[in-house]
C-alpha cells in the first residue's frame, strides 16, 4: 500500500473505533511503524482543520479520536435525539477537581478533602463517563481508586492533564526577598 492508502485506512480505523485509539494500535493493524502512523494522523488532523469539515481529530495524551467539531454539536444532539445535558453540580465539579489533580484517589480521600459523603457524586461522574475505576490502592481494605477519562479531557477541551491550570501561582518577591505563601483560589477544570 502507498501512504495515501495507509492514511485512508487510518482514518477508517479511527471512524470505526469510535473511542480513542493509540497510534501503536493502528500501526499494529496496518503493519507499519508507529512513527509513520503518527505522521499520517497529524496529516489527517491538518486536513480536517484546513477544510470546512464537520469533524476534527483530537489528540488525547497518546491516543487519537475522531470527533464532531464543537460548532456542530447542537445538530448532532438533535439528530441523535439525546436528552438534554444537565450541567455538573458544584459538588460534582469539586469532586472532579479533586480526582483530576490527585489521581488515582479513593472515595475516602475525596470525602476527607470535601468533608462530606461523596458516594452519589462519584456514581454520577462514573455514569457520565468523566471518571473511571483505576484499580485498587495498596492501602488497608484495598479501596477502589478513581481517575479521569478521555471524556473528561474532551469535555474540558484538554489534550492532557498537563494542561490543567496550576493550583497555586508562584509569587515573585522583589529583590530576592521571600514572600510568605498566601492561599490562592484553587481553579476547577475549565475555569480561568
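^ Assign residues to that structure.
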Amino acid at each position: 500500500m502507498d501512504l495515501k492508502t495507509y492514511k485512508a485506512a487510518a482514518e477508517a480505523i479511527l471512524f470505526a473505533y469510535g473511542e480513542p485509539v493509540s497510534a501503536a494500535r493502528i500501526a499494529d493493524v496496518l503493519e507499519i511503524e508507529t512513527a509513520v502512523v503518527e505522521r499520517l494522523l497529524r496529516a489527517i488532523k491538518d486536513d480536517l482543520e484546513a477544510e470546512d469539515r464537520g469533524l476534527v481529530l483530537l489528540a488525547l495524551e497518546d491516543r487519537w479520536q475522531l470527533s464532531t467539531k464543537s460548532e456542530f454539536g447542537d445538530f448532532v444532539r438533535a439528530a441523535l435525539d439525546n436528552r438534554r445535558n444537565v450541567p455538573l453540580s458544584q459538588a460534582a465539579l469539586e469532586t472532579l477537581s479533586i480526582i483530576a489533580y490527585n489521581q488515582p484517589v479513593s472515595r475516602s480521600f475525596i470525602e476527607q478533602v470535601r468533608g462530606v459523603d461523596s458516594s452519589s457524586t462519584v456514581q454520577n461522574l462514573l455514569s457520565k463517563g468523566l471518571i473511571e475505576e483505576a484499580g485498587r490502592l495498596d492501602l488497608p481494605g484495598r479501596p477502589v481508586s478513581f481517575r479521569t477519562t478521555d471524556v473528561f479531557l474532551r469535555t474540558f477541551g484538554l489534550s492532557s492533564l498537563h494542561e490543567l491550570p496550576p493550583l497555586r501561582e508562584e509569587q515573585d518577591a522583589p529583590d530576592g526577598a521571600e514572600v510568605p505563601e498566601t492561599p490562592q483560589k484553587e481553579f476547577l477544570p475549565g475555569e480561568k
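The beta strands are 21-22, 55-60, 63-68, 105-106, 131-136, 144-148.
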